[in-house]
Amino acid sequence: MQRIRARIERVSNADTRFKSISNRAPDVNRLASLGDLTLFFVDDDSQLFMVDLGIIGGVWKVVLSEPVEDIESIAAGSGDKLLVLWSTSSAYIIEVDTSFVRTGKPLRVLKLGSEAFAARPGLKIIHVEWHPRCEGHIGLFTSDSSFWLFNVAKSVEEEEQRILVGPTNRVIVSFAFGPASASNWEVLTVYFTSLDASIFALCPVAPHGLSLPISVAASLVSAAEKRFEETIPQYRTAEDSSRMLEDAEFGNESSFLGGDFPQKAEPRRILDFQKLKTDPTAFAADPRAEDSSATWWTKQARIRLGWVRESLIAREGDPTRAIVRKPRSFSPQMVPLLQGPMYLRNEALSTDRIQRDCHEITVLDNSPTVIFRSMAGNRIDVLLAHEEIEPVWKLSSNGVEDSGDEEEENLKAGEEVAPGLISFEQVKLPGWSAEETVNRRSLNSIGKVFALRGKRAEPAVFVRCAAGLLCLRMPWLNMLESNDPEQVANVPVSLLSAQIATGHSAPIGGAGVFTVPEGTIGVILTSEGLLQISSMAKSMRDWGIESAPTPIARRKRDEKDGPSGSAFETHLGSVVASLPSPVRLDTGAFSKMSLMEAFKVLLNRKTNMQGTYFGSFAQLHELITERSTLCRDLTREQRKRTEELEDIIAVTQDKSSSVKRKLDRCNLQYENLAARVRMVMQIINDGSAKLSKAEERQLADYKLRNAELENRRTRVQGLAQAARQLQEEVLAQRTTESSTRSNPLILRTADRKKIHQALEDHSTAVQRALETNDELCKRLRRLALESS
């Protein structure tokens, strides 16, 4: 019921909120950090300044090689050499050299996407963010619903990748890259949020040259192979599966494209209640039926397996790392599909449209993934990703741009496959007073979350509010990996405390959280030029930065203990203390199984909107569970039979090799005896009428050898008979197993025929040799009689 009401609410508000975002101001953040103690900030005149916190008076105006105008925000890369200055109209890359700044030398300025954006006049930049794991890669989202990925180390003019995100009926306002330390597909995921607070995901988004631990790459390949094995046998015969696997291994991209789009939901989740009108008996049919859903999921499994095998390669010279390269056999049509909107469990509905507006999304580097959604109305939603995301591609035929029908099908598919989220906590922030004037730029800055990078002693984030920087401590964060809802529920809720406060007349011009050797610090830059710094230990230092022309001076103020150094700081602390504690929502659905059972209970519950669909869903769930169990049992039995046949083939090959070796030894002995017989016959033909004693002994030895030959002939005949029996057994085994659908012995029929023919030829040769031997023996007997 909650899901239906949420969907009705989004549709009713669509006409006023999904029009345009060209006039929306970006999130203002004029402060960034490079290195441990070096800060950069931009004033209202788009002038760039550098501050060295380790030097008294260490403030310099940065000289640029070319002027930049109307700068709204600044962001620093993962290294210590690159900055990006951007607004809605343009973005600039700055190559930083602190020695140049101190000596007044100009820094190099490069305009981002000058050629890529040239053919798109009027294009607006919505959000910019550096990739947290691949240095030199930066992502942009623009007003034409496109996600751009640039590799500034190679080119700042042309993009490395461009993905048309869509859908067109949603206003995307921000994005964030997935956790950098994730060991699954989250590391290649980009999360988006729309103005109506919907969450979307795009996977895979892999910068070319991205370095991953070899264990992470191996886990992605293993997951793709497992998914392929689970999907293909449900809809295909064994012969088709072998062919598909071969296509995936060799990157046959022509077989990946085209085809039908899914008309049914994936069995593990049905997000559209209207689809429950389908007759449940249809799911009890042959699982190998060629329905559209089977075809769609089959192609997705093939594309995924082909992508991981072509994109992930071992790094030369470093066996512990793997890199991502561009898939060579994938055409431009193969772009990831936007998954969403994600279903949010426990989401609190609001009839106030402003309360539903979202302007920022932040992803915490944690497992499982934690997402912060900054909402209008001074609220932050803490969301947990309890389901693993999987890569999904568009199945389009027109390249980057989709037709109307294909776009509609992609919208449906993206909603069906999107994983779910849990709305875990809601945090209320101190807002603006009634007499204050709030502009759009200041409103977008409220609720911005700054996540701590790297290892931290205490799990916490900094949150930017109307007139200060708050610290949100989350003691439950380290217990999420236990997957124990009761344990997480018993941990105290998050604690919100005041960290840095500014005056009512000094709105924030920038904020950030940085890691220094002494620990983690929070920094605020006010519009009056006041730079305030606070550490996690709540010791604060203030510097004032004058806005006069160069030389810019900085005056150090006295250190103050705690956040109560002024009357307003005390007021903000009391405001935070009077706020309600973060609301802990339901924690009973951290696993897929418990979530599925919760859906089943919910849909069987008697409500005012009771219809004919709820009972059919329960029956459908039982049929799907039964069919899945049956498919697993059949697959297990088929694998067991295949292993038994492989064992029989191995034993047969060993026996054939042993018989062949024995026959080769017999042939060698026969040739040696035949040579000696020829030698004796030559002596007899020479007319030796009288035999010497030595010759008599040789004749006696020959008779003895003849007897041994007779014995060996008998053994050879026995081996030939055994070979015939083994051949008959192999033929009988082949006849018995030829009735099964997948008979691996059929592949070896030609080899067995060759072995059978070789055995027959060898038996004929042995028989001829024995006949020749008998004839020679008779002649020797006659000679012996004549000699006596």
Automatic annotation (TrEMBL):
Q: Which GO terms describe its biological process?
A: mRNA export from nucleus; protein import into nucleus; ribosomal large subunit export from nucleus; ribosomal small subunit export from nucleus
Q: Where are the stretches annotated Disordered? A: 547-567
What keywords does the record list, in alphabetical order?
Answer: Coiled coil, mRNA transport, Nuclear pore complex, Nucleus, Protein transport, Translocation, Transport
UniProt-listed InterPro entries:
Nucleoporin_Nup88 (IPR019321), NUP88/NUP82 (IPR037700), WD40_repeat_dom_sf (IPR036322)
Chief subcellular location equals nucleus
This protein's source sits in the domain of life called Eukaryota
Q: Where in the cell is it found?
A: Nucleus, Nuclear pore complex
Q: Does the keyword Endoplasmic reticulum apply?
A: no
**Any one of the GO CC terms:** nuclear pore
Coiled coil regions, renumbered to chain: 692-729
One annotated GO molecular function: structural constituent of nuclear pore
In its keyword annotation, does this UniProt entry include Transport? yes
Q: What's the protein here called? A: Uncharacterized protein
